[in-house]
Fold:
Amino acid sequence: MSIGPTRALILDDSPVLARHLQQLLQGLGVAAVLHTDGSAALPAVEADVIFVEVLQATGNGFQLLRELARARACPLVLLTGTGRASDRHWGLQAGAAAVLRRPVDGRALQGCLQDLGLLHPGHAAAPSPMPHDRAG
Structure:
């Protein structure tokens, strides 16, 4: 994947946490679009990376990951509020390239995007105004 302007899709039904992630991504130069209904967003949005919250109001985040993994070639990142090992295990099994704990920490997000080849390693760290942790 080439390093350059990156587009992210955030599939999360929590407006506060989704906006927090969007702000962190924008601080890293990533254009981010929010959607609360993952299935509705699938055909409409082009993205270089997709963030999927495990608990979706309209369905199961693991099932959505499986569908995305079949339909999209971009990396998928599972978002989890618990940080449980089982969430990480099932997320990776379903097709996630990475797992982040919510609320997302700016440094963890930056590291994740660098690991996925979507940011230069020397890119300035995104601030993280909310409490944080990284699963894994």
Notes: The domain at 6-115 is CATH 3.40.50.2300 (Rossmann fold). Strands lie at 6-11, 30-35, 49-53, 55-56, 59-60, 76-80, 98-101. Residues 66 and 93 are 9 Å apart (CA to CA).
